[in-house]
Specification:
The chain has 184 residues and is α+β, with helices and mostly antiparallel strands. 21% of the residues lie in helices and 34% in strands. Helix 1 packs antiparallel against helix 3.
């Protein structure tokens, strides 16, 4: 056996595919109670053996490839940390603002800024540097809305649901996800 993990993706995928092709059941490694002896590996009930044959290597291989594709998800999306929240940060000196119900938030990931304003009617925001693209609003249960970002970086979403929300923005030049934050 060579270096583990393999140095390149193709070698790792090949090793994963080879491992997933062996669809035989794993040996029973749990100790048997004193009055029973474990069933030998080749004495599985027919129903279990049929299930193993129908869930063939292709299904296992597809599941393995899907799981493997998630290995770089964190490196593909920079996480933009919350740097300002008008609900808990003092307003900068010298600015005047009406006593409205809008909440302003700013997220930063290096040179990328995601600035949003949350009102009772929805979320408006802007990406900087300005680029066209897509933004997906997510809850822990999954995406709830996806909209286009125009060429100057503006976007508009409906009202956020209760609980934590994350915005994921993709442009031709960058991909960023905000940290999770409750917006209502």
């Amino acid at each position: 056996m060579g270096q583990w993990p393999p140095g390149d993706d193709e070698a790792l995928l090949g090793e994963l595919a080879e491992a997933l092709r062996d669809t035989g059941p794993p040996p029973d490694e749990t100790p048997a109670p004193p009055d029973e002896s474990p069933a030998p590996r080749d004495e599985f009930p027919a129903a279990d053996a049929d299930e193993l044959r129908t869930a063939g290597p292709d299904e296992f291989l597809a599941a393995g490839y899907a799981a493997f594709s998630w290995r770089t998800v964190d490196t593909e999306l920079a996480i933009a940390e919350l740097t300002f929240d008008s609900a808990c940060d003092p307003e900068p000196a010298g600015l005047t603002r009406s006593a409205g119900s809008a909440r302003a938030l700013a997220f930063h990931a290096g040179p990328v800024v995601v600035a949003i304003e949350v009102t009772g009617t929805g979320i408006i925001g802007q990406l900087s540097p300005a680029r066209g693209g897509r933004i997906v609003a997510r809850t822990p249960r999954g995406p709830y809305e996806e909209v286009a970002v125009d060429a100057v970086g503006f976007f508009s979403l409906g009202p956020p649901p209760p609980g934590p929300v994350q915005l994921q923005a993709r442009t031709a030049d960058y991909a960023v996800a905000t940290s999770w934050v409750p917006l209502r």
